[in-house]
Amino acid sequence: EMRHATATLLIASLCGAGCVGSEPMPEPASRPTPVPLPPGLSLGASHPKTEHVSLVRVLADPASVNGKAITVNGYFDSGLLCLHEEDAAKRLRTNCVSIEVPDSPQARALNQRYVVVSGVVGFGGRTGLSPLYDLLIKDVRRMDPIKDREAMAGVVIIH
């Protein structure tokens, strides 16, 4: 009987008030209705030999991608592609590159969103830091929304 009493006490202490005839568990909160993503922006045929690279690589070693067609993920905000939303909000330009996209309803719908972009890297952007930091993604052929920041890790867009 001592074993039975010890086991009962152990189970009661592990369960807490939730196991012993307490109130029923509340229903899980309903999830908000997801907002549909805006359509992507398509500006022509894909570049041949497009390489998927990280924005960190573009920022850290621009010479390795200068003149190359790339696909890159980042946060698009008013003509800048930044590593994170916080970089755009705090105007941390060293974590951003300029991006040339035509002003259109589709491009405006992608503003202040995480996107995947295909374009060509060059110099001549408008970060205003110095010519070294004035990186630019130009001749953009595609810009597609990314559902959320966590989804950025494995995004590959097949054209």
Summarize the structure.
The chain has 5 helices and 7 strands; from the N terminus they run H-E-E-H-H-E-E-H-E-H-E-E. The longest helix has 14 residues, at 2-15. 22% of the residues lie in helices and 26% in strands.
The topology string of helices and strands comes to: HEEHHEEHEHEE
Q: What best-fitting shape do the alpha-carbon axes yield?
A: globular
**Strand order across the biggest sheet?**
3-4-5-7-6
Per DSSP E runs of 2 or more residues, the count of β-strands stands at 7
Strand content: 25-35%
Q: How far is it from the N-terminal to the C-terminal residue, by CA?
A: 71 Å
CA gyration radius, whole angstroms: 25 Å
Pick out the low-confidence regions. Answer: 4-20, 154-159
- Arithmetic mean of pLDDT: 76
Name the structural class. alpha+beta
* Share of residues in helices: 10-25%
| Main sheet overview | 5 strands, mixed, barrel
Count of individual helical segments: 5
Overview of this protein structure:
This protein has 159 residues and is of the alpha+beta class. The protein contains five helices and seven strands; from the N terminus they run H-E-E-H-H-E-E-H-E-H-E-E. It has helices at 2-15, 55-60, 62-65, 85-89, 105-110, and strands at 41-42, 51-52, 69-77, 80-82, 96-99, 113-123, 135-145. A five-stranded mixed barrel has the order 3-4-5-7-6. A hairpin with a 2-residue loop joins strand 3 and strand 4 (80-82).
